[in-house]
Amino acid sequence: MKLLLLEDDKDTCAHVAAILRAAGHVVDESTTGQDAIFLGTSNDYAVLILDRMVPGVNGLAVLKALRAAGVQTPTLFLTAMGNVDDRVEGLEAGADDYLVKPFAGTELLARVAALGRRPRVAEVTVRLVVADLEINLLKRTVTRAGKRIDLQQQEYKLLEYLMRHTGEIVTRTMLLEDIWAFHFDPGTNLIESHMSRLRAKVDRGFDRELIHTVRNAGYRLDAQA
Questions:
Q1: 97 and 132 inside one domain
Q2: 51 with 95, same domain?
Q3: CA 126, chain centre distance (Å)
Q4: Which of these three, 80, 97, 117, is where a domain ends?
Q5: Residue 16 and residue 10: Cα distance in Å, rounded?
Q6: Structural domains in the chain (count)
């Protein structure tokens, strides 16, 4: 597994890293909190191992920053701060496990292995963005170039569907089945009328069109002409 180790004491860092590498793990070492935040948000690690007593940005602050940035990688605090309040504080900050120094190498490896076996938390998509068009899925709001666009319920669903299929051709059949739950063609201009109103709201008055008609195929939302 690929691991991130934050430990400011160079001898301890080398010792812990050696134990982990001997077990076949790949270890990125960090001696500062700032560096750990950068590495943690720039790489995909299986487990984070953080010391709490790091000068400057300490391990607790590192974990809070990573969690705030959406990094949900399983995390083990490996630290000398071992009283009950310290452990509770660490776990409440988002840690998944807590191991107090001094420790046995076998226990460290067992805890790392256990964390590595945990299913990864799926990242929750809260925004869809194409060029200057954005949907906030939590607030169900739509903006383009910072300007709010008010959509009716079906228009919103239609736009969200197009944005989730950005760059792909979306056929009439797909829209009838997935937006309106029709498994037959009603023989009306239902889609065309909704698409016309949506395009008027999303594209009219802006520098470029994002919703395109693909002749004899369907529609495509794309930042490219």
A1: no
A2: yes
A3: 9
A4: 117
A5: 10
A6: 2
Please check whether residues 39 and 133 belong to one and the same domain. no
Domain limits for position 43: 2-117
Do 21 and 99 sit in the same domain of this protein?
A: yes
pTM beyond 0.85: no
pLDDT tens per residue, range 127-156:
899 999 999 987 899 999 999 999 999 999
- CATH number (domain holding residue 201): 1.10.10.10
Tell me the per-residue pLDDT of 64-118, one tens digit each, with 9 for 90 and over. 999 888 888 999 999 988 788 888 888 888 899 999 999 999 999 999 999 998 7
Question: Residue 30: pLDDT above 90?
Answer: yes
Q: Determine the Cα–Cα distance for residues 143 and 162; give it in Å rounded to an integer.
A: 15
pLDDT at residue 185, rounded to an integer:
84
In a domain, 122, yes or no: no
In the chain, % of residues over pLDDT 70 = 97
